[in-house]
């Protein structure tokens, strides 16, 4: 399968009155055509910032200070704004967000907004684009005659997310980025939306980046999982492997804290809390919470390295030269 996206050493900072937030600290991500990658981790670990950086949607006081985002062989960080708008954003890469209602424009009817997305991405007139709207709405299971005429505030959360999905996929993107697409919805609707997304992505052969704090959802939906912690990628492997044999102490803790229905297992959370990224801990950013921490962890940031075929981890426990610590 051909490589679609290769993000390397991505660094993002936010300059705030409290100081500089080192939000991404050298992130590496990669994705093949038609592949589904899950990015998981707690709130504030850099999942959304990574996605927004790929789209070049980091606005001041945020700044991408370093790195490469190679998409179809071109570095998106070197493209002009105009090129990004003309050929990448909302065309080759489209995005859906957690709060579908607020992502839609409140003053325009659903039909108009979908038509606009289609017109923009296909370089066609609004009249032409309107003709394609019914098909888009039907695809996401909505009654097109009725939904076209609705304003965003007249939609339920589930309907609004269906509209967002219709808009995002109407442009036939190579890559769909879904940032917590179901976490604002109730559980039964969540399942329906994920199933819909699954079917449509299969048909459209889109690659997907699914961002979620829910490892269960990620592993069911995705081929491969990237675990992030405090602005770093700390583990990457296929979905099953990360569940069955996680390597990083943080991933192990995450998996241990997933409740299993019917099991009498005592839930073990991860002690401590996520660091303040204005003054993150030196070395491994997880070290203040890690029960395996040794001297080297406090001074040296571990690299992400492949320790088993297709299984990558950033932890000194797995470095060849780790034992002197
Ligand atoms: Fe723990 Fe050290 Fe590994 Fe970080 S590098 S996760 S502190 S053992
Ligand atoms: Mg987020």
UniProtKB/TrEMBL annotation:
- Which keywords does this chain's UniProt record carry? ATP-binding, Cell inner membrane, Cell membrane, Membrane, Nucleotide-binding, Translocase, Transport
Task: Report the SUPFAM superfamilies cross-referenced here.
Answer: P-loop containing nucleoside triphosphate hydrolases (SSF52540)
Species for this entry: Acetomicrobium mobile (strain ATCC BAA-54 / DSM 13181 / JCM 12221 / NGA) (Anaerobaculum mobile)
One GO process term, biological-process aspect: peptide transport
The UniProt entry lists membrane topology as: Peripheral membrane protein
Domain called ABC transporter: residue spans: 5-255
The record's section on Pfam families has: ABC_tran, oligo_HPY
Output this protein's name: Oligopeptide/dipeptide ABC transporter, ATP-binding protein
């Amino acid at each position: 399968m051909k490589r679609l996206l290769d993000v390397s050493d991505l660094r993002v900072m936010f300059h705030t009155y409290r100081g500089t937030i080192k939000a991404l600290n050298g992130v590496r991500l990669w994705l093949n055509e038609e592949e589904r990658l899950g990015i998981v981790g707690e709130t504030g670990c850099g999942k959304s910032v990574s996605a927004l950086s790929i789209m070049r949607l980091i606005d001041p006081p945020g700044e991408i200070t370093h790195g490469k985002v190679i998409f179809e062989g071109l570095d998106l960080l070197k493209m002009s704004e105009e090129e990004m708008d003309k050929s990448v954003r909302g065309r080759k890469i489209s995005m859906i967000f957690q709060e579908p209602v607020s992502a839609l424009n409140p003053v325009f009817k659903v039909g108009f907004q979908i038509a606009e997305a289609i017109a923009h991405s296909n370089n066609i007139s609004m009249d032409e684009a309107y003709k394609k709207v019914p098909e888009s709405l039907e695809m996401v299971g909505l009654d097109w005659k009725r939904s076209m005429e609705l304003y965003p505030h007249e939609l339920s959360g589930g309907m609004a997310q269906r509209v967002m999905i219709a808009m995002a996929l109407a442009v036939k993107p190579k890559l769909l980025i879904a940032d917590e697409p179901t976490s604002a919805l109730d559980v039964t609707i969540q399942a329906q939306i994920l199933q819909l997304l699954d079917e449509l992505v299969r048909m459209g052969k889109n690659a997907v980046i699914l961002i979620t704090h829910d490892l269960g959802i990620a592993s069911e939906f995705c081929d491969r999982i990237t675990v992030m912690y405090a602005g770093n990628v700390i583990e990457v492997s296929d979905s099953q492997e990360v569940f069955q044999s996680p390597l990083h102490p943080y991933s192990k803790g995450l998996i241990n804290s997933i409740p299993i229905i019917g099991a009498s297992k005592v839930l073990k959370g991860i002690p401590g809390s996520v660091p303040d990224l204005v003054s993150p801990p030196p070395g491994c950013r997880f070290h203040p919470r890690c029960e395996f921490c040794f001297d080297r962890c406090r001074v040296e940031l571990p690299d992400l390295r492949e320790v088993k075929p297709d299984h990558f981890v950033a932890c000194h426990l797995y470095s060849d030269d780790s034992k002197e610590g």
